[in-house]
Amino acid sequence: MSFLRDLRVVIGKEWTELRGSDSPWVTVSTLVAFVAIVGVFVPWQLGPVWIRAPWPILIWAWIPLFIVTTVTADSVAGERERRTLETLLATRLSDAAILWGKWLACVLWIWAAMLICFPVAILTINLTGSGELLLPGPGQTIGTLAVAFAGAGLGAAAGVLVSLRSESVRHAQQVLAIGALVFAFIPIGMLRVLPRDWMMTLFQSLAYGSPAASAWTTAGALSALSLPILVVAQARFRRGRIALK
Amino acid sequence: MDEHISSRIAGRRDGAARHATSPRDAIVTERLTRDFPGVRALDALSLSVPRGSIFGFLGRNGAGKTTTIRLLLGLLEPTTGTARVLGFDAVNESDQIRRRCGVLLEQSGLLERLSAEANLDLYGRIARLPREVRAARIEELLRRIGLWERRGEPVRGWSRGMRQRLAIARALIHRPSLIFLDEPTAGLDPVSASEVRKDLLRLADRERVTVFLTTHNLAEAERLCDRVAIIRGGRLLAEGPPGEIGANHARRQVRIRGRGLNENVAALLADRHEVHALEREEDGLLITLSDPGETANIVTFLVRIGVGVEEVVPIGNTLEDGVLSIFSEDDAPILEAAG
Prior knowledge:
Shape of chain B: elongated
Strand order of the largest sheet of chain B: 6-7-8-3-9-10
Number of helices of chain B: 12
Number of strands of chain B: 14
Oligomer: heterodimer
Shape of chain A: globular
Order of helices and strands of chain B: HEEEHEEHEHHHEHEHEEHEHEEHEH
């Protein structure tokens, strides 16, 4: 209970800082722009495929993964750069509460934005469609949101680990942006080395498979990738090491 | 010296004397040592800080002051030696120490995007103060340092002096038994530094808190501290009340004015063993004594050779003089002595 209470304090602190970084107008307009792209533009371009096909699930993984790295770099490397981290380390908060609090705060921040995008996207598809009501099933809905959470989780885990080692926010963001691009292009590169029948099976499952099953598989894979990164980040997040940086 | 500060110091020094007899010190270190690659930052530091005192830890940049604070807070582990803070081991029970201490490190550590009130509220929540207690405590502290009216402003636009005062209030939000202040007046203009010192004394006095203060400002240490320790290159050079360090370590000087203090007299004085150095001034002599107790012999000699001595002014028993003397004996560069 005491750990959860500390976690809540750290999350609250991070969110207050994120909210306080710009004027409310800037915060709201950034959110509106994000929802306009992810919740309106992309579904409008894809049309009913956005709901019927499994592959758009990859968009739900990659966007939060990419965006969250910026927030995490500011939360960890930025706090060290602003010289506020050591004061936080000198409090009664445990290493784990600080690390997990920062991770979770970044993940939930981005995930909340994705939560807003989801119903907006469904509305967009139905308003721009043929008139047929298109709604994802409960499994697909929860699975898609789980993918968004897992994608943000993986990005934030990598963000924490890279930021702990980086000298500055800029350096962390550069490394993470390159990492996110590599992560996006790895599957494309792998397609070339796959046997032809495997590739066909993969394309078929991405095009005609169950969106719900694909979502849960993707969420599981992303979570499995996050776990070792978080374990390493936890091992590296030591007061003494950070205080010396 | 400021009258307000003088009276506070008198009160605190009485308090410190009372606490000094207590077997329970707030901080006790024994041969505390910390090595970094290629350098020994702290070398067998043994000291004790009485509860309720303002303890000054003096030294130049890089002397080992910040490393000591980090070791005492458990932010670093010692290479060898031990430290106990408020009765807790600094390695194995550092969480208990941090729970009971407040800190102002080299940087204020304030979240600049947040308001003064939000900054204090955050650290109140970290300390698990209930909401009502937190609100009352924030108002109490902000009113005491005169920043209550500006509580809603983001800290980002504030002067360094205001931020330092707010950071001291933040360190006290959870009524800690001990606060660590790492050069709280560094980089401040004289007026802001004076305000920070006044706030510090007022708050420390009212809160009955032990203060571990690092500074390289000797005049500040003399004004504020019950006891001081002087550190250089990680080694403790001296420790005690500021006045005692001044009296024991300063190379005492006397300024003598009178009739007949000419070049011949100066030459005769310069040959005497009591005189370490001698400087001619417009209307007299400034003599640095080999031993502080030799003033009477000098005056007797001058009277005997016919000098009409009109004034003898002993000088040079301040903390600053003592520290300068300690450092010159240690063959080291001197501390910053500006007030």
